[in-house]
Amino acid sequence: MNVPDQHQFSGPITVFQEIRLPEKATPAGYSALIDGYKIAVPLPRTLSAIGEHHRIIEQDGWRIMTPRHAPRPTLEGHLTFALKYEGLDLAVIKRLFLATGPGPIEALVRETPTGSYARRIWFLYEWLTGTRLDLPDAEAGRYVPVIDPGLQWAAPDKTASRYRVKDNLPGTPNFCPMVFRTKLLEEFIGLDLPQRAQAILAEVPRHLLARTAAFLLLKDSRSSYAIEGERPPRDRIQRWGRAIGEAGRQPIDRDELLRLQRIVLGDARFVKLGFRQEGGFVGEHDRDNRMPLPDHISARPEDLASLIDGMVAFDRGPAQGLDAVIAAAILAFGLVYIHPFEDGNGRIHRYMIHHVLAARGFNPPGVVFPVSAAILEQIDEYRRVLESYSRRLLPLIEWEPSPQFNVRVLNDTGDFYRFFDVTPHAEFLYACVQRTVEQDLPEQTAFLRRYDQFRQQVDAFIDMPERMTDLLFRFLHQNDGHLSSRAREKEFAALTDDESDRIEEIYHQTFGSGLR
Predict the structure, then answer these.
(1) Which of 151, 155, 160, 162 is the most buried (most CB within 10 A)?
(2) What is the value of pTM for the model shown?
């Protein structure tokens, strides 16, 4: 049988693939399988090992468990340990199956045909590889979920009678990122942010709500370009804002993605529209502007069709049964890692957030949460979250520079974009959504209320065109409630000093020291 014996699995070590362990311990589960089968795959965020002491340590990306948790040093032992304690890492499992071939998996199932872990492994082999094993359908054994819903977020069950399991994978073999259950995510979900948003807006008059919605929409559109370091003309910002405002109305498919790219780019004379036909990367070039220096390498162009099909299938299927923000994180960050376009990926990635939230009714009708603005406020953390996977992915990609000073990927990397851990991304996105609900919504409605009070009081004692009142307010707002000497002498020279002083007093009464 093509299985490493116990001597091929590592004994106690202090360093694993250049990563220090908190103490000497023996790799277990995925770490043992990656080492034993020499699998080239992005390492799980947390690795497991068996220590020499009877206490569990979680430190520096390691979970050191006790000797009583030690699995048998076999393929079945370590794979069962992984499913029991570590959840599903589909990229590792698929690469493991490609390394073992069907024989050891068939033998494993024949040995314990009613075993719950054996049947889950059997299902995963056929689901991931598309190969039917030489095994008769299971005739006994209690139905068990493929994903342990206590460890990871799962989709609604579908019966897979051949294996007597419940298929609750949140995706398809073309695209199935995973999210672990964490205390932080449970706390976010417990906040019931949609209800909080509804409660805030229930107190807002209809005319004020429309202006709030328009402002938040423009704020998100402007922020999304700012994240990319761009300052496009106002008409492009407004056009993209209108697209965001319509998010969720159309299903995501290839035509919709292409439509969004055309909107977001505007002038496409210097960019190839459509899905990439060449490699792609995020990063810089060397001093001669020739050698790519990538921070992230995009999916190969030959993998784009299946990956996009997988995202479309996820959006129309499993995403409907997941928490809306978690589903948005899976779709949005999946797209940004795949990077299907030459340009426009970042803004379309953030559009996906709005698409899922709107389609699921997470945000109030007609109101867009300015998630991009929240991201912009935490841009360093956003980049750290993006790098949390790119940093582990990059060393696994073999590439060479192309004649166009691009990258050409040389190895099969498609699975690394289909299957990855989206937990940090979901936590970050939930924090951004919480910020928009608990800060942006109430602050913007409060701002508009005070602005209306300011205008009413100014209009009560001086007749001024609306556009001039708006300009007056902008000057005051930008200068902490004071009219500069320049403004008094030029734009508002017609005002007397007493009138200017009274306007400043009105501003301070309504806004205090300034609400920004």
Answers:
(1) 155
(2) 0.91
Round to whole Å and give the CA distance between 48 and 117: 19
Looking at the fold, whether 377 and 507 belong to one and the same domain comes out as: no
Question: Which residues of the chain, if any, have pLDDT below 70?
Answer: 1-7, 267-270, 513-516
Residue whose pair of structure tokens reads 């004994």 in the numeric block: 11
Domain shared by 381 and 474, yes or no = no
**441-498, pLDDT tens digit by residue?**
888 888 888 888 888 998 888 888 888 888 888 888 888 888 888 888 888 888 888 8
Q: What does DSSP assign to residue 275?
A: B
Is residue 482 included in any domain, yes or no?
A: yes
Residue 455 lies in a domain: no
Q: What are phi and psi of 64, to 5 degrees?
A: -95, 115
Q: How many helices (H) and strands (E) does the chain have?
A: 21, 12
- Residue 2: the pLDDT is 42
Residue 457 lies in a domain: no
Q: Say whether both 121 and 247 belong to one domain.
A: no
Query: Distance (Å, rounded) from C-alpha 74 to C-alpha 6?
Result: 6
Q: Which residues pair with 62 in a beta bridge?
A: 47, 59
Q: What is the CATH number of the domain that holds 271?
A: 1.10.3290.10
Q: What total of structural domains would you count in the chain?
A: 3
* Whether 242 and 120 share a structural domain: no
- Kindly state whether residues 125 and 193 are assigned to the same domain: no
Helix, strand and coil content of the chain, in percent to the nearest 5, comes to 55, 10, 35
Helix (H) or strand (E) run with residue 186 in it: helix 183-190
294 and 342 inside one domain? yes
Query: Beta-strand (E) ranges in 134-210?
Result: 144-145, 158-160, 165-167
- Over residues 473-484, the pLDDT tens digits come to 888 888 888 888
Angle, in degrees to the nearest 10, between helices 379-393 and 324-338: 60
Name the nearest CA neighbour of 281 among 407, 371, 189: 407
